Amino acid sequence: MNVAVAKTGKGRAVSDLFTSAEGRLPGSPAVTAVRREAFETYERLGLPHRRIEEWKYTDLRALIGEVLPLAAAPDAAALKRAADAVKVHAIDGARKLVLVDGVFAADLSDVKALAAEAGFGTLRETLEKDAGLLKTASLDAVIALNAAMATDGVVLSIADGAQLPAPIQIIHIATAASASAFTRSQVAVGKGARATIVETFVAAGAKAYQVNDAVLVSVDDDADVAHIRLMDDAPDAMNVSSHFVTVGANVKLNFFNMTTGAAVSRLQGFIALAGEGSELSANGVNLLQKTEHGDTTLVVDHAVPNCVSREVFRAVIDDRAHSVFQGRIIVRPDAQKTDGKMMTRALLLSDEAEADNKPELEIFADDVSCGHGATAGALDDSLLFYLKARGLPEKQAQALLIQAFVGEAIEQIADDGLRAHVIGIAERWLERRQ
Amino acid sequence: MALLEVKDLKVRVEEREILHGLTLTVNEGEVHAIMGPNGSGKSTLSHVIAGKPGYEVTDGQILFKGEDLLEMSPDERAAKGVFLAFQYPVEIPGVATMNFLRTALNAQRKARGEDEYSTPDFLKKVREVSKSLNIPQDMLKRGVNVGFSGGEKKRNEVLQMALFEPSLCILDEMDSGLDIDALRIAADGVNALRSPGRAMVVITHYQRLLNYIVPDFVHVMSRGRVVKSGAKDLALELEASGYAQFEDA
Ligand SMILES: Nc1ncnc2c1ncn2[C@@H]1O[C@H](COP(=O)(O)OP(=O)(O)OP(=O)(O)O)[C@@H](O)[C@H]1O
Ligand SMILES: [Mg+2]
Predict the structure, then answer these.
(1) Which protein residue has the closest C-alpha to ligand 1 atom 24?
(2) pTM of the model
(3) Gap between the Cα atoms of B161 and B167, Å rounded
(4) ipTM of the complex model
(5) Is B153 in the pocket of ligand 1 (CB under 6 A)?
């Protein structure tokens, strides 16, 4: 093969990563060529590090050192464990699409029920015909690596006008220890359609695994979409997820991400508002403890006039954990009457907890209303004392105040059932602290 | 039986002594009023009894049912039956009053080894109590004290007192901010809680409250000490003569 082998030991390992995986990577010869090119891009850039502006606070090179080899396709025992995990993490009534160690598991998924409601295929099938899904605008190294290595994913198309009766839940389950899963999915929502997409990342016994996921979302005019992501990985895992979202006109998009696990995690979302009159609500919560590092990076690009974007982000940081929020709002020269606001707050539960907030406004239009606010602080002692004086033990008093704090982001989820599901995950995180 | 015994209590806040050897005994079933000028240390005493951090007890002791109260965390004190109705109740946005009440009540019961209330039992109890205190149900759906008027906050304190059924109730200026009708309703709520096993310490500046909640004893605090104790008539004397006579005490 014609991939240049880097000189460092780590570079060599990565090359092995690709060559040893190539036989398992689906796609036509044209796809293979795209993968190689993507891998060369990755090799040239290497893992992101702190001197790359976008990764300043998340020095992936220092944090994870190296990319682990591709996980083996799950065997029967792995699928059994995954099935048990699905039972725990499935949302009532949702159409489940399950990926185990980066491979679509049809037997654990509700393909039949979904077929009546939406177009469905896998990345594996799609790549036999077309390499388009591996291409994105970004040259980010982890995204290039994802294009090179993606083994599977779900490809959903929701027809114009379709009103999905139930949420679609994509569940990523890791069963393989010390291995990587690379997945890439696509969600296309048609004009006037209404859909709820949930993505859940969990482990079924696996330790020290790595996830690199990418999702390409397009939302056509007049659609109403709720998109909820739950990164609830094992405490020693890594999860880097990249989202590319393009939004048409008069759309309502309600996006939410919550991180409650992983030693190292990053969600990077690139949301382009490309049609007028759309409303974006993009919210997130990081719940971090021990030495966890959680990064939520959102770029909201107002390309056209008359759109509204609202971001509410809350981080709760315990022990020596480190939370990063980078929120950039871009307002292009044409995007007059843009209304973009972002509010981020960090709650530090220990003296050694760390929060980095980097809000950025890049405004090139003159008739806009944009703003951001950021705060960081500890729990209010007078509120804590009031609760304790009423009989709540310290940790329980803290838990109540923490719930109230993250509630400001969680309450942006409109659906009662989904909100309760998300609150349940936050409560389990709080119980782990007790 | 002595419920609360405060003995020669000395308390410092930020290097400054506020209570200079305060002694007070409250027996079961008794109602004690504490009066005294602004800054004499009434709230400080109530905070130290409730376990608020930031106060350094340099001398003396506080016994509650014979146990050393100062060794207990605030939540332990609450579970044992100490309740302080705050002079300035805080607002807790995002914590629904109803959820707070249930969590607190069940935490106290759990600490005492009692069963938690079932949801229907709890709701029934809250409804009864809030009705008797003229507290509308939709107020309980809001965040704790959030957007409550001054009077509503005070009534919410009395509501909690009725719900938790403590054996020692300390009311720190329950009457401040209450209009005449609200005062009567709140005082009726407090009187309904008077019982042979329960004692009350009522901190107030005004005789008016003591017309409703008639005390067995009245204490005058000045400069961090109890300088005079007497029967309920002492409050009337104070109303007439003021605190000047105690300033040099
Ligand atoms: N946290 C604090 N830091 C410094 N000084 C304090 C603090 N808390 C109380 N003090 C001081 O202690 C003294 C007693 O205050 P306290 O609030 O107990 O008085 P009080 O009798 O309740 O007065 P009032 O009738 O006005 O409510 C005052 O001089 C007050 O300034
Ligand atoms: Mg006071």
Answers:
(1) B38
(2) 0.93
(3) 10
(4) 0.96
(5) no
